[in-house]
Design a protein that fits this description.
alpha/beta; Rossmann fold; 9-stranded mixed beta sheet; 31% helix; 30% strand; globular
Amino acid sequence: MAVLLLTGPPGVGKTTVLRKVAASLAGRRLAGFYTEEIRAAGQRTGFRLVTFDGRAAVMADTRFSGRCRIGKYGVDLAVLDHLAVSALGAAADLYLVDEIGKMECLSARFVQAMRALLDTSRPVVATVARSGTGFIAEVKARRDSELWEVTRANRNGLPDRIVARLAASQRPQPP
């Protein structure tokens, strides 16, 4: 397995699954990032990008203006261009990416960095938008990718399945 993609509807727990995988593999060199919702008065107002080396920045917010928008959110391309891309370029045993989605794909540098990473033999576990064209569709169509659906019924067991799948893919194959 080179690329494991997790998909499912918004709010089903894809990010939580990815973060639990990271916690299970705490002793390994991890690179990449996850996103956190920013909430105010019970409403989602934006998203924070957090790298596995501890850096964080707001990547999208309802208060951001500008031409880069996904729905009600203004997207700060500089965060994706610098923080996300640098996280993908770090040396690691495993790359975890949350997510390959419409916001992230606004950044040509993010797409370029993801393509470069995916073209290596390094293991990648990423969440991916359920639907989308362009790079989202391209990633799903790769021959070296597996697409797993996250549901409310399977999400609690998925972190252990992913860790086991990663361990199995790194064992030497018998001749």
